Predict the 3D structure of the following.
Amino acid sequence: MSIATLTGDNGTTALMYGRRVPKTHPRVSAYGTADELNAALGLARAFCTDAAVAADVLSVQKDLVILMGELATDPADLDRYVAGGFKLVRADRVDRLTDLVHAIEKGSMIRFEGWATPGATPAAAGFDLARTTCRRAEREVIALDTLAADQPGPLAPVNPEIRRYLNRLSDLCWLWARKSETDAAPETA
């Protein structure tokens, strides 16, 4: 099987289980932005010099695959998705991110005044890129959820844990960026 299926040449794409929607569909935008977020986190991880943070980032990237799969599934097919062995985003994943936020806040010497300017280190720049992409993904998930109020089908309500996960992850990305800066130059952070 080739990566070039040619089926999207007409401007549509398949959700899980083959339902086709326009590539501009809000569901596609939401999981597409989550994919961008995953790539930005991969870039940040590639530059990250803290092995523990890099391991946590990799774990989050694996969570994002779960999140994208759930978003890429028409709500009418979610039972089939779960029956197929796929996972959904649950509160325990959000709680794990909250625990990471609290651990960084407690265990690091992050100091800041005002708004941070991205780019002090390559890893920090990657984490700030991931943070802004995460915020966009969160907005697109909320937009998808808002549209679902009046329309059935692929616009059915979104699992609220996805919104919570993205909100928490953006906070964590901000902290990872500041931690990267602080670890690189503790006297100037």
In short: The beta strands are 12-14, 20-22.
